[in-house]
Amino acid sequence: MSETTSDGETPVGTTPAGTAPKRHRRGDTRQRIQDVALELFAEQGYEKTSLREIAERLEVTKAALYYHFKTKEDILVSLFQDLQRPIDELIEWAGHQPRTLDTKREILRRYSVALADVAPLFRFMQENQATVRELSVGESFKDRMLSLIDTIKEPDAALTDQVRCISALFTMHAGMFALRDVEGDPEDKRKAVLEVAIDLVTQAHAGTPGA
């Protein structure tokens, strides 16, 4: 594996597995709009939130809001792009790595960090699945999940091992949602969920011919 050492540590110059990368966004005003909109979507639902309410919470005019986003769907799409970008980069990276167990474990570690960086958005997705399915971003996210599963699942894997790989990703998704009310440090909970996901993929990989 080209980007991890033999003891599993990430070399200098790459993102450490347990460290959330800094969010790359295009300006403070745009980020504030995204954050406030997501707060309102979570508080009262996507359908019941208007651009006027977002502008009022931000204490800006609707004209100032329109400069960045014309509709609330534009805001939601931009939020999904913040999640999809690191997923696309991860899928691209995985495509150039050997299909070893170390690679698969690193894929899960990096995905765990990406999820932690956009935790509020992912909770919104879990709580508003019907809304997400109706928007264009829902279908594109589904396609990315299928591609990501393919990076950790062998094409000729036994059915039980395919289920383990699929379950590994859904464990990471469900864990973020289910554990939010459980007492404990968020980072400890993230690592616990990641450990379970890695265990599932490790079991699946053990059934790979020649592993």
Automatic annotation (TrEMBL):
Stretches the record annotates as Disordered: 1-29
Translocase recorded as keyword: no
UniProt keyword Transcription regulation, yes or no: yes
DNA-binding region: 50-69
InterPro entries referenced in this protein's UniProt entry, alphabetically: DNA-bd_HTH_TetR-type_CS, Homeodomain-like_sf, HTH-type_TetR-like_transc_reg, HTH_TetR
Segments forming domain HTH tetR-type: 27-87
Top-level taxonomy: Bacteria, Bacillati, Actinomycetota, Actinomycetes, Kitasatosporales
Keywords assigned: DNA-binding, Transcription, Transcription regulation
Superkingdom of the organism of origin: Bacteria
Protein name: TetR/AcrR family transcriptional regulator
Sequence ranges of Low complexity compositional bias: 10-20
Pfam families: TetR_N (PF00440)
